[in-house]
């Protein structure tokens, strides 16, 4: 009887320690950035822009405003571009509050630049402090985009499309 009591006592003392195994922290894997799509596949471009935007969300708590300029090869490109430009102008004119991100990208860096410049041409100086503008395109277009958005007081960031 004494032996069975001792075995039970030892089991009661050891069991809690056996149950307290140290849990390992989950391993976070960092995905490689997506490359710029080599074709006009809309879904591939949306995935690429989403990847770039997600990598540049530091300090942003709200859902980003993402403007993707479609391929100029589309038969209705002009109509799509005009609708996108109208939406971008209305969003900016309505006012974007601090803590938001405006991201611009698409097939043609020059057309994306045109969209940004045109959208910001009537914005009041320093009216968008704390707003982040992300331009995804070619370095050759970055300077004119930055010149167009800087007076609004935004935090400008350029990401080369590659």
Specify the number of helices: 5
Instruction: Tell me the structural class.
Output: alpha/beta
Low-pLDDT regions:
none
The domain tally reads 1
pLDDT averaged residue by residue: 88
Task: Compute the CA-based radius of gyration.
Answer: 26 Å
The end-to-end distance, rounded to whole angstroms, is 77 Å
Q: What level of helicity do the residues show?
A: 40-55%
Order of helices and strands: HHEHEHEHE
Strand content: 5-15%
Number of DSSP E strands: 4
Overall 3D geometry?
globular
Sketch the major β-sheet. Answer: 4 strands, parallel
- Walk across the major sheet and give the strand order: 1-2-3-4
Keywords:
single chain; 162 residues; alpha/beta; four-stranded parallel sheet; 4 strands
What does this structure look like?
- By secondary structure, the protein is α/β, with parallel strands linked by helices.
- The protein has one domain.
- Helix content is about 45%, strand content about 15%.
- The protein has a four-stranded parallel β-sheet with strand order 1-2-3-4, with helices on both faces.
- The radius of gyration is 26 Å and the shape is globular.
- It starts with a helix and ends with a strand.
- The mean pLDDT is about 90.
């Amino acid at each position: 009887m004494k032996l069975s009591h001792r075995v039970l006592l030892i089991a009661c003392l050891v069991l809690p320690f056996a149950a307290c195994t140290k849990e390992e922290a989950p391993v976070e894997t960092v995905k490689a950035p997506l490359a710029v799509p080599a074709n006009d596949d809309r879904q591939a471009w949306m995935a690429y822009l989403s990847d770039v935007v997600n990598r540049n969300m530091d300090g942003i708590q709200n859902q980003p405003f993402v403007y993707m300029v479609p391929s100029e090869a589309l038969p209705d490109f002009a109509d799509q571009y005009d609708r996108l430009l109208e939406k971008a102008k209305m969003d900016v004119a309505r006012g974007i509050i601090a803590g938001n991100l405006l991201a611009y990208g698409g097939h043609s860096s020059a057309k994306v630049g045109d969209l940004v410049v045109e959208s910001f041409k009537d914005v009041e100086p320093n009216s968008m402090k704390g707003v982040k503008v992300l331009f995804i395109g070619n370095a050759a277009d970055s300077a004119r985009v930055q010149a167009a958005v800087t007076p609004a007081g935004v935090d400008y960031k350029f990401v080369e499309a590659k």
